[in-house]
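Please supply some protein, with C-alpha coordinates.
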Amino acid sequence: MARVDNTGGSGFTVDNGTGLVVRTKLNQIIAALSTLNQGSGDPSIGVAAYVPHIDGNTLKIRNAANDAFVSLGDVSATNFGHASLSASNTFAGGCTFSSTATLNGTTTLAGTNTISGASTFTEDVTFDGATAGRDIVFDRSDNALEFADNASLVFGAGSDLTITHDATDSTITSATNDLKITSNGDDLILEAEDDVIIRDNGGSNILAQFINGGANELYHNATKKFETASGGVSLTGGAAANITSVTQSSGTITFDFAASCHHKVTLTQTANLAAPSNQAVGQSGSLFITQPSSGNYAVSYNAAFFFTGGSTPTLSTTSSATDRIDYIVLESNKIHCVVSLDVKTGT
Protein backbone atom coordinates (compact mmCIF):
# COMPACT_ATOMS: atom_id res chain seq x y z
CA MET A 1 0.00 0.00 0.00
CA ALA A 2 1.31 3.45 -0.81
CA ARG A 3 -0.06 6.94 -0.91
CA VAL A 4 1.51 10.34 -1.42
CA ASP A 5 1.86 12.92 1.32
CA ASN A 6 3.16 16.49 1.37
CA THR A 7 6.82 15.60 1.99
CA GLY A 8 8.99 17.06 -0.82
CA GLY A 9 5.88 18.50 -2.49
CA SER A 10 2.10 18.59 -2.17
CA GLY A 11 0.53 15.32 -3.24
CA PHE A 12 1.78 14.38 -6.69
CA THR A 13 3.76 17.66 -7.09
CA VAL A 14 7.60 17.58 -6.77
CA ASP A 15 9.17 20.70 -5.27
CA ASN A 16 12.71 21.91 -6.12
CA GLY A 17 15.17 20.46 -3.67
CA THR A 18 18.28 18.38 -3.16
CA GLY A 19 18.76 15.16 -5.04
CA LEU A 20 17.85 12.97 -2.06
CA VAL A 21 14.63 14.88 -1.33
CA VAL A 22 13.57 14.90 -4.98
CA ARG A 23 14.43 11.20 -5.43
CA THR A 24 12.46 10.30 -2.28
CA LYS A 25 9.40 12.23 -3.53
CA LEU A 26 9.62 10.62 -6.96
CA ASN A 27 9.80 7.14 -5.39
CA GLN A 28 6.75 7.96 -3.27
CA ILE A 29 4.77 9.08 -6.32
CA ILE A 30 5.82 6.00 -8.34
CA ALA A 31 4.81 3.68 -5.48
CA ALA A 32 1.42 5.38 -5.15
CA LEU A 33 0.81 5.17 -8.89
CA SER A 34 1.87 1.51 -9.11
CA THR A 35 -0.58 0.53 -6.35
CA LEU A 36 -3.33 2.90 -7.54
CA ASN A 37 -2.93 5.02 -4.39
CA GLN A 38 -4.02 2.08 -2.20
CA GLY A 39 -4.75 2.62 1.48
CA SER A 40 -7.42 2.55 4.12
CA GLY A 41 -10.21 5.07 3.66
CA ASP A 42 -10.41 7.84 1.08
CA PRO A 43 -7.29 9.99 0.60
CA SER A 44 -7.26 13.71 1.38
CA ILE A 45 -3.95 14.49 -0.34
CA GLY A 46 -3.45 14.39 -4.09
CA VAL A 47 -7.19 14.38 -4.77
CA ALA A 48 -8.39 15.69 -8.13
CA ALA A 49 -11.14 14.95 -10.65
CA TYR A 50 -10.78 11.55 -12.35
CA VAL A 51 -7.93 10.39 -10.03
CA PRO A 52 -8.40 6.73 -8.96
CA HIS A 53 -7.48 5.10 -5.66
CA ILE A 54 -8.07 1.84 -3.77
CA ASP A 55 -9.80 1.97 -0.39
CA GLY A 56 -9.10 -1.43 1.19
CA ASN A 57 -10.25 -3.61 -1.73
CA THR A 58 -12.68 -1.10 -3.29
CA LEU A 59 -11.56 0.63 -6.48
CA LYS A 60 -12.81 4.23 -6.56
CA ILE A 61 -12.46 7.27 -8.79
CA ARG A 62 -13.02 10.94 -8.10
CA ASN A 63 -16.04 12.30 -9.95
CA ALA A 64 -15.93 15.06 -12.56
CA ALA A 65 -17.14 17.68 -10.08
CA ASN A 66 -14.31 16.73 -7.73
CA ASP A 67 -16.69 16.60 -4.78
CA ALA A 68 -17.22 12.84 -4.22
CA PHE A 69 -15.78 9.38 -4.88
CA VAL A 70 -17.48 6.80 -7.12
CA SER A 71 -17.03 3.09 -6.32
CA LEU A 72 -16.09 0.99 -9.36
CA GLY A 73 -15.81 -2.49 -7.85
CA ASP A 74 -14.02 -4.94 -5.57
CA VAL A 75 -10.46 -5.66 -6.75
CA SER A 76 -10.43 -8.93 -4.76
CA ALA A 77 -13.46 -10.31 -6.63
CA THR A 78 -13.70 -11.78 -10.12
CA ASN A 79 -14.67 -9.16 -12.66
CA PHE A 80 -14.58 -6.60 -9.82
CA GLY A 81 -17.71 -8.25 -8.40
CA HIS A 82 -19.73 -7.35 -11.50
CA ALA A 83 -21.78 -9.73 -13.63
CA SER A 84 -19.71 -11.13 -16.45
CA LEU A 85 -20.92 -10.84 -20.04
CA SER A 86 -20.17 -13.84 -22.24
CA ALA A 87 -21.58 -12.07 -25.29
CA SER A 88 -23.40 -8.86 -26.10
CA ASN A 89 -25.62 -8.12 -23.07
CA THR A 90 -25.46 -11.78 -21.95
CA PHE A 91 -24.89 -12.35 -18.23
CA ALA A 92 -22.93 -15.61 -18.10
CA GLY A 93 -23.33 -16.29 -14.36
CA GLY A 94 -25.54 -15.27 -11.50
CA CYS A 95 -25.72 -11.60 -10.69
CA THR A 96 -27.39 -9.39 -8.10
CA PHE A 97 -28.99 -6.03 -8.84
CA SER A 98 -29.25 -4.37 -5.41
CA SER A 99 -30.91 -1.18 -6.60
CA THR A 100 -32.99 0.03 -9.52
CA ALA A 101 -32.10 -1.82 -12.72
CA THR A 102 -33.02 -0.74 -16.23
CA LEU A 103 -32.33 -3.25 -18.99
CA ASN A 104 -32.56 -1.91 -22.54
CA GLY A 105 -32.40 -3.99 -25.68
CA THR A 106 -31.82 -7.75 -25.78
CA THR A 107 -30.45 -8.91 -22.42
CA THR A 108 -29.91 -12.52 -21.36
CA LEU A 109 -29.69 -13.52 -17.67
CA ALA A 110 -28.24 -17.04 -17.71
CA GLY A 111 -27.61 -17.88 -14.06
CA THR A 112 -29.19 -17.38 -10.67
CA ASN A 113 -29.97 -13.68 -10.55
CA THR A 114 -31.34 -11.44 -7.83
CA ILE A 115 -32.94 -8.09 -8.54
CA SER A 116 -33.79 -6.40 -5.25
CA GLY A 117 -34.65 -2.93 -6.49
CA ALA A 118 -37.36 -1.51 -8.72
CA SER A 119 -36.56 -2.61 -12.27
CA THR A 120 -37.72 -1.61 -15.73
CA PHE A 121 -37.58 -3.88 -18.79
CA THR A 122 -38.12 -1.81 -21.91
CA GLU A 123 -38.34 -4.69 -24.40
CA ASP A 124 -39.86 -8.19 -24.47
CA VAL A 125 -38.97 -10.47 -21.54
CA THR A 126 -38.64 -14.23 -22.16
CA PHE A 127 -38.65 -16.87 -19.42
CA ASP A 128 -37.00 -19.86 -21.04
CA GLY A 129 -38.66 -23.18 -20.11
CA ALA A 130 -36.52 -26.27 -19.45
CA THR A 131 -38.61 -28.06 -22.09
CA ALA A 132 -38.18 -26.60 -25.56
CA GLY A 133 -41.17 -24.64 -26.81
CA ARG A 134 -42.67 -24.01 -23.35
CA ASP A 135 -41.50 -20.45 -22.80
CA ILE A 136 -43.35 -17.58 -21.17
CA VAL A 137 -42.99 -14.15 -22.83
CA PHE A 138 -44.07 -10.70 -21.81
CA ASP A 139 -44.70 -9.25 -25.26
CA ARG A 140 -44.28 -5.51 -24.92
CA SER A 141 -45.98 -4.73 -28.23
CA ASP A 142 -49.01 -6.86 -27.29
CA ASN A 143 -49.03 -5.61 -23.67
CA ALA A 144 -49.51 -9.25 -22.71
CA LEU A 145 -47.90 -12.07 -20.71
CA GLU A 146 -48.02 -14.95 -23.19
CA PHE A 147 -47.71 -18.65 -22.31
CA ALA A 148 -46.63 -21.15 -24.95
CA ASP A 149 -48.63 -24.37 -25.31
CA ASN A 150 -48.20 -26.61 -22.23
CA ALA A 151 -46.50 -23.84 -20.22
CA SER A 152 -48.51 -23.67 -17.00
CA LEU A 153 -49.52 -20.95 -14.57
CA VAL A 154 -49.29 -22.58 -11.12
CA PHE A 155 -50.51 -21.26 -7.76
CA GLY A 156 -49.82 -22.62 -4.26
CA ALA A 157 -46.92 -24.41 -2.59
CA GLY A 158 -48.21 -27.80 -3.70
CA SER A 159 -49.30 -26.86 -7.24
CA ASP A 160 -52.78 -26.33 -5.81
CA LEU A 161 -54.15 -24.51 -8.87
CA THR A 162 -52.92 -24.92 -12.43
CA ILE A 163 -53.99 -23.17 -15.64
CA THR A 164 -52.76 -24.78 -18.85
CA HIS A 165 -53.43 -24.77 -22.61
CA ASP A 166 -52.23 -27.79 -24.63
CA ALA A 167 -52.78 -26.47 -28.18
CA THR A 168 -56.28 -27.97 -28.18
CA ASP A 169 -57.97 -27.50 -24.81
CA SER A 170 -57.65 -25.05 -21.93
CA THR A 171 -57.75 -26.52 -18.43
CA ILE A 172 -58.09 -25.07 -14.92
CA THR A 173 -57.21 -27.72 -12.31
CA SER A 174 -57.73 -27.34 -8.57
CA ALA A 175 -55.77 -30.02 -6.72
CA THR A 176 -57.02 -29.26 -3.22
CA ASN A 177 -60.30 -28.26 -1.57
CA ASP A 178 -62.94 -26.19 -3.39
CA LEU A 179 -62.61 -24.10 -6.53
CA LYS A 180 -64.62 -20.92 -5.97
CA ILE A 181 -65.57 -18.32 -8.57
CA THR A 182 -66.92 -15.16 -6.95
CA SER A 183 -68.47 -12.13 -8.66
CA ASN A 184 -68.84 -9.26 -6.21
CA GLY A 185 -69.66 -6.72 -8.89
CA ASP A 186 -72.66 -8.16 -10.75
CA ASP A 187 -73.68 -11.30 -12.64
CA LEU A 188 -71.60 -14.42 -13.24
CA ILE A 189 -71.99 -15.25 -16.94
CA LEU A 190 -70.84 -18.45 -18.68
CA GLU A 191 -70.76 -18.13 -22.46
CA ALA A 192 -70.09 -21.09 -24.77
CA GLU A 193 -69.95 -21.36 -28.54
CA ASP A 194 -71.45 -24.82 -28.21
CA ASP A 195 -72.72 -26.71 -25.13
CA VAL A 196 -72.15 -26.29 -21.39
CA ILE A 197 -71.55 -29.64 -19.68
CA ILE A 198 -71.03 -30.32 -15.96
CA ARG A 199 -69.45 -33.71 -15.24
CA ASP A 200 -67.84 -35.51 -12.31
CA ASN A 201 -64.07 -35.44 -11.83
CA GLY A 202 -63.50 -38.58 -13.88
CA GLY A 203 -65.56 -37.20 -16.73
CA SER A 204 -67.67 -40.35 -17.03
CA ASN A 205 -70.89 -39.11 -15.39
CA ILE A 206 -72.82 -36.08 -16.59
CA LEU A 207 -74.43 -34.01 -13.83
CA ALA A 208 -76.06 -31.37 -16.05
CA GLN A 209 -75.94 -30.52 -19.73
CA PHE A 210 -77.10 -27.35 -21.47
CA ILE A 211 -77.24 -27.82 -25.22
CA ASN A 212 -76.99 -24.73 -27.41
CA GLY A 213 -80.20 -24.57 -29.42
CA GLY A 214 -81.54 -27.67 -27.70
CA ALA A 215 -82.50 -29.18 -24.36
CA ASN A 216 -81.34 -28.39 -20.86
CA GLU A 217 -80.83 -31.66 -18.98
CA LEU A 218 -80.47 -32.55 -15.29
CA TYR A 219 -79.16 -35.94 -14.12
CA HIS A 220 -79.40 -38.01 -10.94
CA ASN A 221 -76.62 -40.54 -10.42
CA ALA A 222 -75.77 -40.45 -14.15
CA THR A 223 -79.43 -40.94 -15.20
CA LYS A 224 -81.27 -38.10 -16.94
CA LYS A 225 -84.36 -37.13 -14.96
CA PHE A 226 -85.39 -33.71 -16.28
CA GLU A 227 -85.20 -32.25 -19.77
CA THR A 228 -86.62 -29.14 -21.39
CA ALA A 229 -88.27 -29.55 -24.78
CA SER A 230 -89.78 -27.26 -27.41
CA GLY A 231 -93.24 -28.07 -26.07
CA GLY A 232 -92.42 -27.92 -22.36
CA VAL A 233 -90.52 -30.36 -20.17
CA SER A 234 -89.90 -34.09 -20.01
CA LEU A 235 -89.74 -35.77 -16.60
CA THR A 236 -88.42 -39.27 -15.95
CA GLY A 237 -89.72 -40.75 -12.70
CA GLY A 238 -91.99 -39.15 -10.12
CA ALA A 239 -91.98 -35.57 -8.88
CA ALA A 240 -92.16 -34.96 -5.13
CA ALA A 241 -93.37 -31.66 -3.69
CA ASN A 242 -93.21 -30.43 -0.11
CA ILE A 243 -96.30 -29.91 2.00
CA THR A 244 -96.04 -26.83 4.21
CA SER A 245 -97.48 -27.30 7.68
CA VAL A 246 -99.36 -24.20 8.92
CA THR A 247 -100.15 -23.50 12.56
CA GLN A 248 -103.40 -21.65 13.15
CA SER A 249 -102.78 -18.84 15.65
CA SER A 250 -105.86 -16.70 14.95
CA GLY A 251 -109.24 -16.85 13.27
CA THR A 252 -107.65 -16.00 9.91
CA ILE A 253 -105.43 -18.40 7.95
CA THR A 254 -103.30 -16.97 5.13
CA PHE A 255 -101.46 -19.55 3.05
CA ASP A 256 -98.14 -18.39 1.52
CA PHE A 257 -98.12 -19.84 -2.00
CA ALA A 258 -94.41 -18.98 -2.36
CA ALA A 259 -93.60 -21.47 0.43
CA SER A 260 -94.96 -24.46 -1.50
CA CYS A 261 -97.90 -25.61 -3.62
CA HIS A 262 -99.35 -27.83 -0.89
CA HIS A 263 -100.36 -26.80 2.64
CA LYS A 264 -101.94 -28.50 5.64
CA VAL A 265 -103.44 -27.15 8.83
CA THR A 266 -105.21 -28.60 11.88
CA LEU A 267 -107.87 -26.20 13.08
CA THR A 268 -107.73 -24.82 16.61
CA GLN A 269 -110.75 -22.55 16.22
CA THR A 270 -113.28 -21.34 13.67
CA ALA A 271 -111.32 -20.16 10.63
CA ASN A 272 -111.54 -17.86 7.63
CA LEU A 273 -109.28 -18.68 4.67
CA ALA A 274 -107.87 -15.31 3.58
CA ALA A 275 -106.60 -14.59 0.05
CA PRO A 276 -103.28 -16.46 -0.18
CA SER A 277 -100.10 -14.38 -0.46
CA ASN A 278 -97.63 -14.64 -3.36
CA GLN A 279 -100.09 -16.15 -5.84
CA ALA A 280 -98.57 -17.25 -9.16
CA VAL A 281 -100.80 -17.64 -12.20
CA GLY A 282 -100.96 -21.32 -13.17
CA GLN A 283 -99.87 -22.56 -9.77
CA SER A 284 -101.84 -25.54 -8.54
CA GLY A 285 -101.85 -27.71 -5.45
CA SER A 286 -103.89 -28.90 -2.50
CA LEU A 287 -104.98 -27.52 0.87
CA PHE A 288 -105.57 -30.13 3.60
CA ILE A 289 -107.95 -28.97 6.36
CA THR A 290 -108.16 -31.25 9.43
CA GLN A 291 -110.51 -31.00 12.39
CA PRO A 292 -109.13 -31.66 15.87
CA SER A 293 -110.45 -34.62 17.86
CA SER A 294 -113.10 -32.33 19.34
CA GLY A 295 -114.24 -31.19 15.85
CA ASN A 296 -117.01 -28.63 15.18
CA TYR A 297 -114.88 -25.75 13.78
CA ALA A 298 -116.48 -24.08 10.74
CA VAL A 299 -114.47 -22.66 7.81
CA SER A 300 -115.36 -19.64 5.65
CA TYR A 301 -113.59 -18.31 2.54
CA ASN A 302 -112.25 -15.08 1.07
CA ALA A 303 -113.79 -14.02 -2.25
CA ALA A 304 -110.56 -15.10 -3.97
CA PHE A 305 -111.73 -18.72 -3.74
CA PHE A 306 -114.12 -19.83 -6.54
CA PHE A 307 -116.21 -23.05 -6.41
CA THR A 308 -118.33 -25.09 -8.85
CA GLY A 309 -121.63 -23.34 -9.59
CA GLY A 310 -120.66 -20.56 -7.18
CA SER A 311 -121.82 -22.70 -4.27
CA THR A 312 -119.57 -22.38 -1.22
CA PRO A 313 -119.00 -25.86 0.25
CA THR A 314 -119.39 -26.62 3.95
CA LEU A 315 -116.39 -28.52 5.23
CA SER A 316 -116.61 -31.50 7.56
CA THR A 317 -116.86 -30.81 11.31
CA THR A 318 -116.63 -34.36 12.60
CA SER A 319 -113.78 -35.43 14.87
CA SER A 320 -110.37 -35.64 13.08
CA ALA A 321 -111.98 -35.36 9.62
CA THR A 322 -109.71 -34.19 6.80
CA ASP A 323 -111.04 -32.30 3.77
CA ARG A 324 -108.94 -31.54 0.68
CA ILE A 325 -109.28 -28.41 -1.45
CA ASP A 326 -107.59 -28.81 -4.85
CA TYR A 327 -106.90 -25.46 -6.53
CA ILE A 328 -105.36 -23.72 -9.53
CA VAL A 329 -104.65 -19.99 -9.76
CA LEU A 330 -106.37 -18.60 -12.87
CA GLU A 331 -105.35 -15.04 -12.17
CA SER A 332 -104.64 -12.89 -9.14
CA ASN A 333 -107.33 -13.51 -6.48
CA LYS A 334 -109.22 -15.84 -8.79
CA ILE A 335 -108.48 -19.35 -7.48
CA HIS A 336 -110.59 -22.20 -8.87
CA CYS A 337 -111.25 -24.91 -6.26
CA VAL A 338 -112.69 -28.43 -6.01
CA VAL A 339 -113.43 -29.88 -2.56
CA SER A 340 -113.20 -33.52 -1.44
CA LEU A 341 -114.92 -33.99 1.94
CA ASP A 342 -113.91 -36.28 4.79
CA VAL A 343 -111.22 -38.16 2.86
CA LYS A 344 -110.38 -41.41 4.62
CA THR A 345 -109.73 -45.13 4.13
CA GLY A 346 -112.37 -46.87 2.03
CA THR A 347 -114.56 -49.66 3.36
Notes: Helices lie at 19-34. The mean pLDDT is 90.
